[in-house]
Amino acid sequence: MDTKQIHLEKVNWDNFEAIINLHVNKEQRDFVASNKDSLVHACIRMIDEGKRVFPFGIYLDKKPVGFIMVTYDVGEDDGEEPSAEWFLRNSYFIWRFMIDKRYQGNGYGREAMRLVLEFIRTFPAGAAKYCWLSYEPTNERAKKLYQSFGFRELPEHYEDGEEMPAILEL
């Protein structure tokens, strides 16, 4: 299929049910939270912390095929102890990213990543030097995709049993 038909649409009242009904393969469930949980986390982050969150459906023409969510500045609030993870402050975080099991292997994830990075580079929540994400170290497919966009792993910030952080200079 043609990846030029892939585009991002904000999650809203009209499409949230279709988005929460997208799922990864059984063997991928440990790699990403459900879309329903992700949208709940987005609401809590916005309401409780006053942070900006950008949840998008990934669409092939008019059909939802995936979900991606971005947030900004996930470091500690002013007055708290600074984080050892310098890349958390004033940066964009690709918090969730998935392609539904029925649509994997068609290049839709690659195109969605290109589009979300294009969106991030408009700096919708403020200036940033970095974009980062994290993934399960056993998820080789994700690792290769992210590296192809220039993300580099930060093994010095990896703890066993946690996700591997990777960063991209914007």
Would you mind describing this structure in some detail?
Strand 4 (92-99), helix 3 (108-120) and strand 5 (130-135) form a beta-alpha-beta unit. With 170 residues, the chain is α+β, with helices and mostly antiparallel strands. The model has no long low-confidence stretch (mean pLDDT 87). The protein has a single domain, classed as Aminopeptidase, CATH 3.40.630.30. It has a seven-stranded mixed beta sheet with strand order 1-2-3-4-5-7-6. The chain has helices spanning 16-20, 35-49, 108-120, 140-148; strands at residues 6-10, 53-60, 63-72, 92-99, 130-135, 152-153, 164-169. The protein is 25% helix and 26% strand.
Brief descriptors of the model:
seven-stranded mixed sheet; alpha+beta; 7 strands; 170 residues
State the gist of this model:
With 170 residues, the protein is an alpha+beta fold. It has helices at 16-20, 35-49, 108-120, 140-148, and strands spanning 6-10, 53-60, 63-72, 92-99, 130-135, 152-153, 164-169.
